[in-house]
Structure formats: structure tokens, C-alpha cells
Amino acid sequence: MTEAATRRTPGTPCWTSLMVHSLAATQDFYHALFDWEFTPGPQQLGAYVRAVRDGVPVAGLGELPPERQLPVSWMTYLASHDADETAEMIRACGGTVAVGPLDADEAGRMLIAADPEGAVFGVWQEEEHAALRESGAPGTPVWHELTARDSGAVAKFYQMVFGYEPDGTRSASSSEPGEPGRRTLHLAGRPVCAIRSADRSLPRDRGAHWMTHFAVRDVDEAVRRVGELGGRVVEPPSDRATGHAALVSDREGAAFTVVRAEGA
């Protein structure tokens, strides 16, 4: 899992956000599931709030314009010291920049991009507002994983853009023992995220995508609660590389993983 000390290192997942059709209903869902409270956030892209747990910002929720009837999904943001420079690197390495770079009030500078397989991700240049420090506490994001058709090829893109380490057993270009097609990416010797090959198992209606893992005390209880709140269980609880976890979705279909908190 990602450690707090690496939060500002370029390439480290530093924030996660979700754009939905009904912001009020989504706030109710995640308040009931993760005990989140909400405070106003940057409004450049429309109505937006920061989810807060125990006084610490943990995620962002925004509302899509009524005319944009798009599927919704959680988006991972990767840290950068210079969003404009990162945007140029993304383009040079075969990705695309869809939004920005642009300023987000006092919070910093951001952009939204897609890698060569089409997986959408954000880039965050932190300013006054401190980006998320992943503590591993229940109700907070603790891991981010990209599912792609070819983990080896797309890993090279992220390695070139963000400088993930290609050395030895901590390689972004070689599969982990016992986990064919799964590659953990490292910065400063620490694991920060992973890329997993889905190959033919990747649904046609859902291409390459980043997945946010939220810590919970009890995975089975969280899965039960998701169902009660109008969400859906996509994959039931099981032991995985990231721990005991389950894949679920909220009322609008945004998928996320709940994983047992360390020490729980």
C-alpha cells in the first residue's frame, strides 16, 4: 500500500474524484457507507465538494451537467511538480490531454488525460491545499490499480511520463511472481500503484481503467451495506493481491474496491 511519506512524489496517486449525475444522492450514499462529511471545493468544472473524514480531505465529488449523460467512474490523480510539463510528456509518449492544465482555486493546477489504451486519469500539481495523505484508515483510499489489455506496454508509458523505477524485482516491465500480468510500480523504492493485464476479460463496454481501493474494517459488512444503499456487488469478497477485498459499485454504477484495512 502507498505510504504517507511518498504522497508528494511525482507519479504517486494523490487524489481521487468522481463526477456524477446526482451529487446530493451520491453524498448520501458515501456518507452512509464511509461516514464522509462534505465541504465546498473548486467550482471550475461545476458543483464540486470535498469528502472529509476525521477532518482530513479524502476524495472529491462533482456533478455533471444535465446534458452529459455519461457513465460515471472514480478517477485517480497522479502527482506532478509541473502540470504543464507533464501534459507535454503525456502527449509526447502517446497519451492525450482532454482537460487543462488549468488552475483549481487555491488547490493547485490540474489536468485530465488518457493513456495510450484510453484509461482516463488526472494529474495534480499541489499548491496550498494538501493532497490526500493515505493513512490506511477505514473510509480512505489506500491503493490504486490500472486494468489494461497489455500491462507491459502501458507500463512503459507511465514509466516514461512519471519516472517509475525499472530496476530489478521492482520493475514496471516484468510480472510479479505468482501474479502473471500484474506489475507494481515503485517510486523511491516504495510501491505506489499497480497495473494489471485483463486481456480478453476486459469488458467491451468498459475499456482500460483505474480502480480506487477504499479501506474498510469489515469487507463483508461493507458489501452488505452497499446493497442496502442501492449499490451492487460486482465481485464478491475474496483474497487478492491487495488483501481481502470485493468489487462493488454505487447507485450510479461507479465501481470501486473495498479492501480490509491493515490491522482490522
UniProtKB/TrEMBL annotation:
Pfam families found in the cross-reference section: Glyoxalase_6
Domain VOC intervals: 140-261
Transmembrane segments: none
Name of the protein described by the UniProt record: VOC family protein
Organism: Streptomyces botrytidirepellens
